[in-house]
Amino acid sequence: MSDPFIGEVRIFTGNFAPLGWAFCDGQLLPISQNTALFSILGTTYGGDGRSNFALPNLQGAMPIGTGQGPGLSEVSLGESLGSDMVSLQVNQVPAHTHAVQTAVAADSLGPTAQSLVAPTGDNSAAFRATGRTTAMSSASVAPSGQGWAHNNRSPVLSLNFIIALQGVFPPRG
To answer: Is 1-60+158-173 CATH 3.20.20.70?
Structure first.
C-alpha cells in the first residue's frame, strides 16, 4: 500500500489507530508537532490556531460531501448538521384522520360539553341536529402523539475513522 496523503481519512475496523494515524475524534493536536497536517486542516474543526488545532470528530456522526446538491442547502467544509432526536410539529405531519372513540353511556337528548358519541342500542342516532352546536368532549377523537422527541437516525454500523498524520503532502490540483 502506498503512503497516504497527510489528512487522508479512512475507515478502520480495529480498536486502535495505526502508527502515523489518529482517530477522527475531535482531539486537539499541538501545531508544533503536526505542522504539515495543520497547514491542511487549519482550525476548520476547532482549536485556537496558535498552539493547537482539532481533528475532525466523526464519533456518532456520518460524513457528507461539501457543496450544494440539487434541492439541498449549501454544506461547508467542517460544518456539523442534524440532530439525533427530533420532535415533529403539526405542519410536518401528513394530513390524516383519527378514529372516533365511543362509549356506552346513558342516552341523552342532546350533546353536552362533556358528551361522547355513544351508541343508542336501537341503531338510531344518539344526537340529532337541532340547529345549534355544542362543543363535544375532546375525548371523542382518539388522541395522537405525546409531543416527545424520537430517534431520527438511520440504521448504522459503528466503525472507526482515522486520519493520516504522516505521509505525502497532497499537491494542489
So the answer is: no
pTM (predicted TM-score): 0.70
* 148, three cell numbers: 416527545
- 162, amino acid identity: I
147-170, pLDDT tens digit by residue?
788 888 888 899 999 999 999 999
Range(s) for CATH 3.90.1340.10 in the chain? 1-60+158-173
Q: What is the DSSP string of 148-160?
A: --EE-PPP----E
pLDDT bracket for residue 88 (50, 70, 90) = confident
C-alpha span between 46 and 42 (Å, rounded) = 8
Residue written as grid cell 416527545: 148
